[in-house]
From TrEMBL:
Gene Ontology molecular functions: voltage-gated potassium channel activity
Protein name: Voltage-gated delayed rectifier potassium channel KCNH4
CDD domains in the record: CAP_ED, PAS
Signal peptide: none
Chain's gene name: Kcnh4
Length: 704
């Protein structure tokens, strides 16, 4: 939407407190050039602009009335365009006009044609903006400004508080941090462990009629797991993810591209439905079971989630024990395969001393030949698992022992792996846990210190809550890392390069374009980061201003006597100029955070020191800082609000506004009155819904 918001509560003029991105694109002016100008839009007039229309606009503003007209305005570059101007006063719950909404619709192409629908559409767009403002642009304190949902009604209505806009996503998009997704991940984890256990078992112990019957007994669970894996692929195509920049991605197309480029093919191979061959009575050979080993690729997804599970010591120990038991199970399957291979050997002396032959004699179920007789599959698996576990955890007990060369080689490998497991995992469990929880331990230590400080000094509950919330939020942003302390021991050259990279957003402002690289490096060392929570005051009126602030993310408002002077968002610069040599600069207004805000600031003392080192740039900076400051907080720096200077008024035939004015005009037909039909009641159009994210700066961006 192309719109402006102007403050209607000041006695001297009506300064612009917010302009949309669409207005900047339409006119070519930057936000810093528009803020605090008079909303009568004389800075847009030119040779063909109608002076009576401008005077009518000023009279309407004084009377706080609605108005709609076709006006010829001029862009910053001098190009003329015709627009349908719609002026709407915004009332609070007390019926007082607190803001003016100026809506601009470009009608240059349709100029001179009959377009009754344009007026109605413009008014509907204005209503759309009001609807969005009514749901977002309310205030917390009782004495602050509040917006009415419908300015065309005389009855007061309740307004919601200031809050971040809810995330707009399709109902078919699954949040990766939702409770359902967490439970689903646990179900997939259990299914993955089931596959890791059953697939090696079926591959190694399938071959006899008994084992084939056992394999068919698990056909239902196997098919159920395959269906789970297939369904997981479908859900992953509709599940959000966190991008490298730390933002949650909700766009379906981006989600599909990301999943295809990462885990899709691994999941697809692991979900091939081999067990459906049993349903169609197709004979299954050992080769099919070998192909099912590709399902073990699902274990790679487990490695992806280890960081999430590693936050809990009990989970770490559980995973270690599960990995150890899984390794013992796999080695038991291999041990059985070696025994079967020795039984099928052509050398009779070899298969007579094999561990399977010895087990059959002890269980009184000897082998008649290589394929007849012998212990049951259940007894053979238990004996295999017993041997591998005893070999991994100790040197074994000898009741199940290796006799042939192949069995002895496998036993040697098993004992080496067991020693490695002891040395790497079990011997370092304490060190692993301490290493994983070092940062968390520091967090709990500082949190305990903070709570002890609050308890000792008996701080009130409200102040306690603010301190705890600020600490937790700042920790989530920087993870407890102090960049200044971390870079303290590095050389100045490297520190300056790192500082320039960290502060590149503020150094890319137009005011720093003419600065030399050495000047920018010196400035970067004086730039610090700050953070502000919703409802916190960054500056108070009358405070000594110590720095100029750059808004990296979030939204703030500038207040004076509970009146909104400006709304600041990402990319705005707020502070004071260095025009005078005053030792102390007093702030002329309050600056309050509306959302969680990341800020970068440069101290005025450090700024002056750098400018003294680079005098050739100092004069340029002093002259340009007025244009880059979105709002100047220096006391007495306000321009005469409501009167545009000649340099800012390109109108060639501007005349002083007469004291008198024409009689009030009748309401326009497109303005809905109380007596209109119910079907004309405002409903946001689909096209107007797209302006929600651009309504206020950074209010619709995802929170941390």
């Amino acid at each position: 939407s192309n719109f402006l918001l102007a403050n209607a509560q000041l006695r001297r003029g009506f300064p612009i407190v917010y302009c949309s991105d669409g207005f900047c694109e339409l006119t070519g002016f930057a936000r810093t050039e528009v803020m605090q100008k008079n909303c009568s839009c004389r800075f847009l007039c030119g040779a063909e602009t109608s002076e009576p229309v401008l005077q009518r606009i000023e009279k309407v503003l004084e009377g706080k009335q609605e108005y709609q007209a076709e006006v010829c305005f001029y862009k910053k570059g001098g190009a003329a365009f015709w627009c349908l101007l719609d002026v709407v006063p915004i009332k609070n719950e007390k019926g007082e006009v607190v803001l003016f909404l100026f809506s601009f619709k470009d009608i240059t192409e349709s100029r001179g044609k009959s377009h009754p629908g344009d007026r109605k559409e413009a008014r509907r767009q204005g209503r759309t903006v009001l609807h969005r403002l009514g749901s977002r642009f309310a205030r917390r304190d009782r004495g602050d400004v509040k917006l009415n949902r419908n300015v065309f009604e005389n009855k007061p209505s309740s307004v919601p508080e200031y809050k971040v806009a809810s995330v707009q996503k399709s109902r078919f998009i699954l949040l990766h941090y939702s409770v359902f997704k967490a439970l689903w991940d646990w179900l997939i984890l259990l299914a993955t462990f089931y596959v890791a256990v059953t697939v090696p078992y079926n591959v190694c112990f399938t071959g006899t009629e008994e084992s084939a019957a056992a394999a068919r007994s698990t056909i239902v669970s196997d098919i159920a797991v395959e269906m789970l894996f297939i369904l997981d692929i479908v859900l992953n195509f509709r599940t959000t993810y966190v991008s490298q920049s730390g933002q949650v991605v909700y766009e379906p197309r981006c989600i599909c591209v990301h999943y295809v480029a990462t885990w899709f093919f691994v999941d697809l191979i692991a979900a091939l439905p081999f067990d459906l061959l049993y349903v169609f009575n197709i004979s299954v050979t050992s080769l099919v079971h070998l192909l099912k080993t590709v399902r073990l690729l699902r274990l790679l997804r487990l490695l992806q989630k280890l960081d999430r599970y590693s936050q809990y010591s009990a989970m770490v120990l559980t995973l270690l024990m599960s990995v150890f038991a899984l390794l013992a199970h796999w080695m038991a399957c291999i041990w059985y395969v070696i025994g079967r291979a020795e039984m099928q050997s052509s050398d009779r002396r070899t298969w007579e001393i094999g561990w399977l032959h010895e087990l059959g004699k002890r269980l009184e179920a000897p082998y008649v030949n290589s394929s007849v007789g012998g212990p049951s599959i259940r007894s053979a698996y238990i004996a295999s698992l017993y041997f591998t576990l005893s070999s991994l955890t100790s040197v074994g007990f000898g009741n199940v022992c290796a006799n042939t060369d192949a069995e002895k080689i496998f036993s040697i490998c098993t004992m080496l792996i067991g020693a490695l497991m002891h040395a790497v995992v079990f011997g370092n469990v304490t060190a692993i846990i301490q290493r994983m929880y070092s940062r968390r331990s520091l967090y709990h230590t500082r949190m305990k210190d903070l709570k002890d400080f609050i308890r000792v000094h008996r701080l009130p509950q409200q102040l306690k809550q603010r301190m705890l919330e600020y600490f937790q939020t700042t920790w989530s942003v920087n993870n407890g890392i102090d960049a200044n302390e971390l870079l303290h021991d590095f050389p100045d050259e490297l520190r300056a390069d790192v500082a320039m990279h960290l502060n590149k957003d503020i150094l890319q402002l137009p005011v720093f374009e003419t600065a030399s690289r050495g000047c920018l490096r010196s400035l970067s060392l004086h730039i610090k980061t700050s953070f502000c929570a919703p409802g916190e005051y960054l500056l108070r009126q009358g405070d000594a201003l110590q720095a100029d602030y750059f808004v990296c993310s979030g939204s703030l408002e500038v207040l004076r006597d509970n009146v909104v002077l400006a709304i600041l968002g990402k990319g705005d610069l707020i502070g004071a100029d260095l025009a005078s040599q005053e030792p102390v600069i007093k702030t002329s207004a309050d600056v309050k955070a509306l959302t969680y805000c990341d800020l970068q600031y440069i101290g005025l003392r450090g700024l002056c020191e750098v400018l003294q080192l680079y005098p050739e740039y100092a004069s340029k900076f002093t002259a340009d800082i007025h244009q880059d400051l979105t709002f100047n907080l220096r006391e007495g720096s306000e321009m005469e609000v409501g009167v545009d200077t000649p340099a800012l008024t390109p109108c060639a035939h501007s005349q002083p506004r007469p004291d008198g004015g024409a009689a009030p005009e009748k309401p326009l037909p497109s303005i809905l009155e109380d007596g209109e039909e119910p079907d004309e009641v405002f409903q946001p159009s689909p096209a107007a819904a797209t302006c929600r994210k651009r309504l206020l700066p950074s209010l619709s961006s995802p929170g941390r």
